[in-house]
Design the sequence.
């Protein structure tokens, strides 16, 4: 479960870099991002090395290592190619790990196993969950780190921060849509008022902490950034990152229990 979280965060951070211009942001920001992604990939590989994702994980670690070395240069040769290849390898690794984390579309009912998703739907839901979770985690983290850049580059334009916060808002909407659809599907066979079901107890944490909370604080960060109070916006984004982390970890727990991206 933690390996999936690390890879989702790493993939999202790579995706967030595509909205940044190396001519505006200092190359060290890209280099630091890649080193962080490399660390997350290594942690994921160590945690789930003895799985079917062993080869994709090894390739992911190798490519992110190359990326972190390439972005040492101010004008990195093949920097965007390294980013694209790292992201592709990460998607394959994530697909393998996510399948083992979920209950593969099965739920224990009355002592038996009842299939609740067809194979195609289960695969589609995992892909949607992985990509939207990665986007939410990555843009939240990158927005906060971009905010920090204003401490060492006070002349930096406000556009990179605004763009990251806007992308965070879009990712949050998409993530809520995927989780909402899964919740609707799950509630057709379950009583969401049944407190004897541990999943019902986790749902408020997942929604209020992981989705509604980041939406409220994300809007506050956006409005604060509009008046160019970058330090205050960065502080608010710290809260967003913590809430998103807690929400996505809770989502992984619910996915493991139900097979659905709640």
Sequence:
């Amino acid at each position: 479960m933690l390996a999936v979280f690390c890879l989702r965060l790493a993939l999202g951070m790579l995706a967030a870099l595509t909205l940044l211009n190396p001519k505006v942001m200092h190359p060290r920001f890209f280099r630091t991002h890649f080193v962080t992604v490399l660390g997350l990939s290594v942690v994921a590989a160590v945690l789930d090395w003895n799985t079917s994702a062993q080869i994709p994980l090894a390739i992911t670690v190798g490519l992110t290592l190359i990326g972190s070395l390439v972005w040492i240069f101010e004008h990195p040769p093949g920097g965007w190619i390294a980013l694209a290849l790292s992201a592709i390898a990460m998607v394959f690794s994530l697909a393998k790990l996510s399948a083992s984390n979920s209950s593969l579309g099965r739920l224990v009912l009355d002592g038996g196993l009842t299939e609740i998703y067809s194979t195609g739907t289960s695969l589609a839901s995992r892909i949607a969950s992985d990509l939207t979770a990665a986007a939410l985690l990555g843009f939240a983290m990158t927005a906060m780190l971009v905010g920090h850049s204003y401490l060492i580059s006070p002349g930096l334009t406000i556009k990179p921060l605004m763009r990251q916060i806007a992308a965070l808002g879009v990712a949050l909407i998409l993530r809520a849509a995927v989780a909402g659809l899964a919740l609707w599907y799950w509630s057709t066979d379950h009583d969401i008022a049944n407190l004897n079901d541990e999943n019902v107890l986790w749902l408020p944490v997942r929604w209020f902490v992981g989705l509604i909370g980041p939406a409220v604080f994300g809007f506050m960060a956006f409005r604060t950034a509009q008046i160019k109070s970058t330090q205050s916006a960065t502080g608010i984004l710290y809260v967003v990152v913590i809430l998103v982390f807690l929400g996505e970890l809770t989502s992984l727990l619910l996915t493991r229990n139900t097979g659905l991206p709640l």
Observations:
- Residues 103-120 have pLDDT under 50 and may be disordered.
- The two ends are 15 Å apart (CA to CA).
